[in-house]
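A common beginner's mistake is to predict each chain separately and then try to dock the pieces by hand. The better habit, illustrated here, is to supply every component at once so that their relative placement is modeled jointly.
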Amino acid sequence: MRIEDSLLSTMSRFLDYAAQKQKLIASNVANAETPGYRSKELRFEDFLAAERLAGEEGGLRRTLPQHVSGRPTLVRARPLEASEGDEAGYDENNVELEKELVELAENVMKFTTTAQFLRQKLQLVRSSIKEGRA
Amino acid sequence: MSGLFTSLDVSASALAAHRRRLEVLVANLANAETTRTPEGGPYRRKDVLFETQSVEPFWKVLAEVGGEGLEGVRVQEIVTDPRPPVLVYDPQHPDADPSGYVAYPNVNPLEEMANFMAAKRSYEANLRAFEAVRELIRRSLDIAR
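With all components supplied together, the output reads:
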């Protein structure tokens, strides 16, 4: 069993994504009544595209130890464009509180599930280090 | 993970702002019949103006590309409602004008209650967001256990 396998890194990147998303949801909820605020969202496609770019080929490569890590930090969240369901009220604020709270709950569940899997996986590693002894 | 701590700040800023609004609304209700104020005349209804507030220090914005879009909220200003006072005919009142009318505050208790409910809901929503982030942090810590 390889310790650093793709599953482990996939799960940890997903946690990155969910944490990032959580920040935006918190920001949207905080500004649900701020005039002129436009809700922001992190699209999974954007995240995935940036991850791809950061892959083995085409990504930044470190040629000197002083260089910053080739693994880029997370993609920028872009402001949500007006969608068909967009109902900016009289104060030009388009945050839909219900939608944000649903996403919040969903995000917590996904994060919890993934964190749980990750933990199980690490426990397997720990167990094999200890040769199965408790 | 450090990003999660920042979003606690975002929710905290919103909780503070909405609590401020609740305070102002309560003051409106309390003064719904106040006819004397230090500025003279009846109490004038107040409300708050919210504005976004960046919660990240500049170096962090530079270091963390994903930092964009993370905005808290703060009370920019407490504004006075421009609506005129309500005139009620009551010649016996000490604050009645020569023609017998008393200027009462421009506060409508029903309107204040409606605003109060809305502000309370917003406060609760932010509390939910705060708790969710706390849960994520707790789960992250669990991984290493």
